[in-house]
Every structure is written in structure tokens, then in C-alpha cells.
Fold this sequence. Notes:
With 146 residues, the protein is α/β, with parallel strands linked by helices.
Amino acid sequence: MNRTTTVKEGSIERKWYVVDAAGIPVGRLAAQVAQILRGKNKPMFAYNADCGDFVIIVNAEKVALTGNKSDELIYWHTGWPDGLRNVSRGKLLEDDPVRLVTKAVWGMSPKTKLGRESFKKLKVYAGPEHPHSAQNPIPLDVRKAK
């Protein structure tokens, strides 16, 4: 008799992946990283459990903006009167590339409790160095389609 198994929090094996973002378009990088953070690449994926892996993104300053995206504006509101602010993606890439990549991955993640929990497993660094070498991260190639 076949029975449906459910994923328990203790039975989830989490891996560490490292992604070199040099020359990769931001949207492609964010979409694939968000799926790995959520755990959708695993056969044991469940919508009610956080079964995703940790992802380290290095070289965020060398990420690619295709087309006219460097001129497009990102808007947000501070919550105060007259608090509408904006910045172009190109300027954000120059000033704070880590924020640009994290905002892109956050935009691809679900806006739920599990989405927030899985987002905590993302580590982004502007340069090629990261302090997570003790976890033995596996290199991940996001250029190929999955």
C-alpha cells in the first residue's frame, strides 16, 4: 500500500551552494536562487515546510543589467508624508550591489512566513570572498536552464 509521506523539520538535509554572479542577468539569478531557497528543486518539496538550501552569492557588483534596466527606477515609500522615493537600478548597482540582488531575490520569493524564513538562508557579498568556507559550499551554475 502506498502512503503519502510528509516532510518533518528534522529530516531535511540542507546543503550550501555558492553562486558567482559575474555577468549573470539579475532576474535569471534571482529566479533560480529563490527556487533553491524555497526547496523547489528537491523531490521532497512540500508547500507547508521550509526544505530549502542555503545560497551564497558572490561578486554581486559584477551582475548584469540587460536592456534599459539600468535606467529604470525603483520606487518605495518611507511611510511619512511626501515620502515617495526612487533610485535607478544602475545607481543602486554602483552604490549598493548587495541591496540590488537581495531586492531581486525578495521579489521572486513568496511573501509568507515560509518565504521570510527561507529568505534568511540567503547570503550576498559584493566581492569574491565570503566567510562561509567552513560549510563547504557546492558551486552552482545558474546559467543553464533547469
